[in-house]
Amino acid sequence: MLDQLLPYLRCPFDPHRRTPLLRSDDALQCPACSARFRIRNGIPVLVPQDAILPVGIRHHAQLAARHSSPPALSDTNPRW
Ligand SMILES: [Zn+2]
Asked: Ligand 1 centroid to 32 CA: how many Å?
């Protein structure tokens, strides 16, 4: 079942909810911020407070900056 859901799951630290998670042994891992999320009884625990933080990160609030920002409107619209 998890394999069917995996394409729809996104990193909860991504402010834009665009980064898909990858399966990594007994957890899911975000390729952008490297946070890992345990899988309990076949269900991924995507609760930020329960995430396994990468080395050097002390608080999950630091991880949003590791996700790339969408282009600013001024970069996609012609300037007048
Ligand atoms: Zn992430």
From this structure: 5
H-type alpha helices, the chain: 2-5, 73-76
Which residues are within 5 Å of ligand 1 (an ion), measured at CB? Answer: 11, 13, 30, 32-33
What is the length of the chain?
A: 80
Q: In 6-73, where do the E strands start and end?
A: 22-24, 27-29, 36-40, 43-44
- The reported pTM is 0.79
SS3 46: coil
The neighbouring-strand residues paired with 39 are 44
Q: For the segment 2-23, what is each residue's pLDDT rounded down to a tens digit? A: 888 899 999 999 999 999 999 9
